[in-house]
Records
---
Amino acid sequence: MLVLVLDTATPTLVAGVARWSPDGAEVLAEQAVPSGTKHAELLTPAIRAALDDAGAALADVEAVVTGLGPGPFTGLRVGIVTAAGLADARGLPVVGVCSLDAVGSGARTVVTDARRKEVYWAAYDAAGARVEGPAVVRPEELRRPGPFVGDPAFAERLGAAVERAEVTTAGLLRAAAAQLADPSSAAPLVPLYLRRPDAVPPTAIKAVTQ
């Protein structure tokens, strides 16, 4: 099965193409693009580049995997809406996974930038199964022993080293394996925002005078 893999939960968007089977996955191509807040402008070119590098066309794709976050509201929905739109247009199965599940491997606590001086985090056991999170917290308040992987910028505030690790195509496929093996088990794509969006409707509407 040829799988298109997307994630826009972090400042580095990921677009990958892989050959997947229940026996394992082979990543054919991956674009990891520093995108900041420009996910919408950069995702489609990254998808095209990944497909070109893999020697494949969008018509060859048989399933789509996307990260569901946690992540910033605007950037996160770019990847999810793109994945849902492509899958719907082609009648393909689409699988969503927690993006933190795709960072690092084994026993670890993943920390990524949540802005507002906070981190998104989740903890995993030796088998790589998530045992706590995802959640958002100030680094000083995260009472976890580590080891930590993710964004090293938070090492000082955590009081422990953080091994640099990012979302990868291979990691997303690993997290999606059970749902890819049984597409009927795939849950609806529900973004993991963990916060309300910054933009909110006004609480009062001013009268318009003429």
---
Amino acid sequence: MADPTDRPSSPASPAARRTRVVLAEAARSGTGPSRTRTELAQQTRVGEALVRGLVRAQLALALRLSLVVLIGLGGLPLLFAVAPAVGRARLLGIPLPWLLLGVVSFPFLVAVGWAYVHLAERNEQDFTDLVERPER
């Protein structure tokens, strides 16, 4: 015989409450891998296009900063040829071309190198943000 205490739970009890699970919400919650990361891992056309975009951005950055160095340091001999008075100038008894090419060029190159690293890391962070953003 059934025990009278084994009654079904009343609708107000916590055991009888139903939990509604909507698959679209579960998929959107980010528990699974994102589609973009899957595209990268499987090396599909979309993944290749994303990586190609990153490589293109890094190459463009390198070329722009190489142009800055070329103009900055390569332009000095041109300046000395066009304006010979600048090439003959002396500062503290040292010829100006020696100071510019032998002393000032090193901090300039360090600054360009720092800018390259900073901007390249920003490109990579933008790429990571693109890959890890939630799907819509």
---
Amino acid sequence: MSEQVQNLSLMGYVRRILPFSSVDGPGNRTIIFLQGCSFRCGYCHNPETIALGSVLSTDEVSLRSPEDVVQEVLKYRLFISGVTISGGECTLQPEFLLDLVKALKKENFNVLIDTNGDFDQAFYERIRPWVDGFMLDVKSVNPEAHKELTGEDNQRVLENLNRMVQDRTLCEVRTVIVPEWLDNTHTVSYVSKVLAAHAPETRYKLIRFRPHGVVAQFKGKTMPNHTEMEKLEKIALDAGLKQVILV
């Protein structure tokens, strides 16, 4: 991970808090978006969440304590089934994230971590007892393609995929399907086999690439058609997965 926030065990950079969402985990959930990301994905639809540090505008991002964030979430308690912490990449602020999930669990919230998987096993061991599950993006299993897409290696992503599946802490995996560039068949096949071996009931979302608001090199790329998506869906189902969702 190329950036780390230091000495922020009691404060963290929060981009925004979305009171209600039905697409970021099961049920109606409050979503906490933390600022900063270790990846620079060419098709990122939330590029405003990437930067971290002195370049931030205080009008866009607030420095908040876990207790302050929890107090805001408590306003929605009667209307939600849980909280999902996302980004950016929320694990880029590890100490704040850990304090935040502990504070949320004290209030008996169901807590999910939405992550790109770019964090080490030591942090996974620290945060795992405090959360109810992880939602993981697996962009490509090919290391060269992953680095070209994100600017970073995928070794820790794949390590976390395998570990979370074995521990049964993984509630959802997502892969964005980009035709004629990423080896979508290879990635979907690999992920499906890993899930099927230990947790075939895990949701696997296959998300159509959409060329809206992306960087220049992706603007000319096309969305996958229905036939391509159905082919990938069949790969996942044939591997033994129970929940394959096309988005």
